[in-house]
Amino acid sequence: MKQKRTRRGPGAPGGLEAVFGVHAVRALLERGITPTELWVQEGEAGARLADLVEAARAGGARVQARPRDELDRLARGAAHQGIVAFAAPLAFEAESALWFRLEAWPHDAPPLLLVLDGVTDVHNFGACLRSADAAGVHGVIVAKDKAAPLNATVRKVACGAAESVPVYQVTNLARALAKLKALGVWITGTAGEAEALVFEADFSGPTALVMGAEGKGMRRLTREACDQLVKLPMAGSVSSLNVSVATGICLFEAVRQRGPASPGAVSRKP
Q1: What is the pTM for the complete model shown?
Q2: Read out DSSP for 129-182?
């Protein structure tokens, strides 16, 4: 099911979504996703971005030189770095695909899943996806409601992770967590009032790490569905961390426990 998109900037080809920035565009090409069209800033940017331009052109993309002010208007404040690619919009993976994959688990290592409850900020969402990709997470789970869309800003912030990590959209998060438990996945939620530290949790088996929205944290039903709650030790004056920072710390504790052979994220490509 596709998430409703935000309105595209002026000049964007119909039916396509803009992907801004060098890292995000390079990630598209490295994953075999050829944009339909590529806009490159006129002037010195063309020479600086020659490798990306040639790779996109070789894949069949139409390349156009455009003035900087046009790219600025399209990016609406995003750091486009002189390059914008237009590709098909991303879509969430269906909930049925999650259960199919888990019931016929194809990997030797146990699943490592990231669950985001109420994370609606696209910058935080993109940063969480980037951490998930780096940590070898097999899939990210979000609810149909109160969740950020998979839009151009997420793709920009994620630097390619939005294309590589499967993002499953479930209708009811509490029910989905209950089904994960029935499949043998241990649910670990994060909460500031928890007694145990994240470093005391066991992430070596099938694991789903649940991160709540900043400020509000996990919703009540989500919290009740967790097998255990953990927290990060906070030694300073601030009481909490940005959700994407906390996600990275918790995920890499799981990586540490699982050892250097932890598998990479499952590609979205068929």
Answers
A1: 0.82
A2: HHHHHHTT-SEEEEESSS-----HHHHHHHTTHHHHS-EEEES-HHHHHHHHHH
